[in-house]
Amino acid sequence: MEKMTSPYKWGMVIDLDRCTGCGACVVACQAENNVAICAKKEVAEGRNMHWLRIERFWVGEYPDVRVRFLPVLCQHCHDAPCEPVCPVYASYHNPDGLNGQVYNRCVGTRYCGNNCPYAVRVFNFYDHEHAWPKPLDNQLSPDITVRSRGVMEKCTFCIQRIRRAKEEAKGEGRLIRDGEVQPACAQTCPSEALVFGNMADPASRAARLARSPRRFRLLEHLGTHPSVYYLKGGGREHV
Amino acid sequence: MSELPVPAKSATQLNDEMLSSLRPPTLRWYVLAFLLGAVVAWGLYAFTYLVTTDMSCTGLDRPVMWGIFIVNFVFWIGLSHSGTMVSAILRLSQANWRRPILRAAEAMTVFTVAVGGLFPLIHLGRNWVFFYLIPYPNQRGLWPNFRSALLWDAMAITTYIIGSSLFLYLGMLPDLAVARDRAKGWRLKLYTVLAMGWRGTAREWLIFHKASTLMAALIIPVAVSVHSIVAWDFAVTVIPGWHSTIFPPYFVIGAIHSGVAAVITLMIIIRKAFHLEEYLTPLHFDNMGKLQLVIALLWSYAYFVEVQTTWYAHEPIEWEVYGFMAHKYTFILLLMLFGNAILPIIVLCFKRFRRSIPVMLALTLLINVGMFIERFLIIVPSLSHKNMPFVWGTYSPTWVELSVTAGAFAGFALMYTLFAKTFPMVAVTDVREYESQKALVPLGRTRVPSLVGKE
To answer: Does residue A8 lie within any of the structural domains?
Structure first.
């Protein structure tokens, strides 16, 4: 285990047995993080800007068809393939275990996007910065940069919320309490399939869930050590 | 077969013939330069369009974030290999047949590196802040990330372009002096500055020979490392199909394969354009053909090994990439295998074909088409089918990317055309040195060639 330089190691547990695939998390993320609204054309071209996607898989043969959902967001790997390849340190690892992305440092080599095995990094192929339809620009969050064209962006675990919670906790001379901060996706999930918390605290809800025998991580064999754990029970084939 | 002209020619006559490219340009030259310039202008327009609008005018999308710009980058850096490398190896191994072609090869290196080095900048999402990649001192204490293969690239290419320019310039120094002594007007001024007061004293020649040998020895490891580093752009990633230990040597071999072919193509063009039939004889094509044959065999071996290990291990995602490639790009895959391996290996086995200029021209062009495809097939299918099947995608280049590519080819040709009219295209002094070595010297009652050794 590497030396801890922060009392936090943010992580998430996604219970696939709970996920209904409703997509509320996707919408919440979009509203929270100034994620650009993409035209149908852009989505069809594979250039949608969602930081979080619900992968939908059909299982079985007709008429016994079931559907499985897999919400995929940045896995905030501890050995992230996206980080060392960035030539300008736009993609970096912060002490809390997050994969940060410095938008105004990014030159747009897209190397990180290629090297991310989860394909969760999205690139501003279009100029979304100036493309907010008139009344909608009022909803932009002042806490987050509106990304210019030609830069890579990605899920940050709503770092602006973490920052704010940290400041509040610091003011009161304590650490952030479990459940005090959660990203928009986890906050919105109606079935509480997404649980966010401090993995460095073994008593946190996320850390306890992450010890479940149902747990696995995506593409674990690549050795990226993601911070996102998935839970999936065996046996029952339906979701 | 007479390989080189035997009748002794006077020095002036030799100079005249070999510096023929420096004669005032003809109308045809202007037409060619204009046409190339027009294509370059079109490429520049496409690039400007790309910069001023946004990256959506490319064919890139979520899984395939590198496309034909990076294909171009690898291709051009690959092409640059032979120039310097062939010239350096042949210089060190004292192959006399190298002499008439070495200038063409070395110049090719400089221009292809120049063109190739532009592509990583062209492909940036925010080209206007490219200087973030340069380690310059700044108030914010920001520094580029030396763990990134792209930074290694930047260093390697800078080193290579400086090294190969010096190599070209050093070799050209005595020729510039020859040109200076015959020039008038602005050319006289240009050559006077560039020849740096070369007078051809014994001491100057001694230093010159030492320096050229040293440069030749030093440039080879640089050339090998440059393409290894280009290969590392891919090999150090975790992308199925890219993450492969054979990539660096395989890329170096591929680079030499395309580079040797390009040198042969250029030799043919220069021979025709400047009427250098006496200096670039079928013997040269025969020798270059043998070299090409060896490289073609090596390339085929490397390709076979790469596919074979993947096939044997049959790792699902890796095999998926190959399956996708073979399914979606069947035609160009077969064209590549045919053009890079099967045809060259068969054709180059025969002396008759190696010495036939039209055959060599067609073959070398086909090899480079094949090598361009090879780079495309390395880069695009791997990205199209990465680890997450939900975000698999495809890629096809758009008019912007193709225009920039066309502009790059034309730009290379234009630089080369201008160079050929401005600088000595045939290494005059190298050829003359050989001519003088070959001259008959009296030995006892008979006269024998002063040169010892083959050819």
So the answer is: no
